[in-house]
Specification:
By secondary structure, the chain is an all-alpha fold. The chain has one domain. It has 2 helices and no strands. The longest helix has 25 residues. The chain is elongated and about 55 Å long. The model has no long low-confidence stretch (mean pLDDT 86). The structure holds zinc ion. Zinc ion binds next to loops. The site of zinc ion has 8 residues, from loops.
Length: 99
């Protein structure tokens, strides 16, 4: 399969794109929060909630990246925040191809 020759896991690529959007939303939110224009107050909330929902979406997406063979989570590998890793093309436990 040709996609296995790509350098980066497609899941990793997707997460990088998702995180870039999240950062853009947070920046937009910050910019509007700092502006003193009262009419924009409603917009501030929209970007805040967009960023929150988008963040939850990314977490759910990352949670769903599992090995088809041994079902180990590839991003959340343990219960602590220190167990979060980028997904690789192969399972970190049993070396099975993830995608
Ligand atoms: Zn596995």
């Amino acid at each position: 399969m040709p996609h296995k020759n790509e350098f980066m896991s497609k899941y990793k690529k997707n997460i990088i794109v998702f995180l870039s959007v999240l950062i853009a939303l947070i920046i937009l939110n910050t910019l509007f929060e700092e502006s003193l224009v009262e009419d924009l107050f409603a917009l501030t909330n929209i970007f805040y909630w967009l960023a929150m929902s988008w963040g939850i979406f990314i977490a759910v997406y990352a949670l769903k990246i599992r090995c088809p063979k041994c079902h180990s989570g590839q991003v959340f590998r343990g219960i602590s925040a220190f167990d979060i890793r980028w997904p690789n093309k192969k399972c970190f436990k049993c070396n099975e191809y993830i995608e």
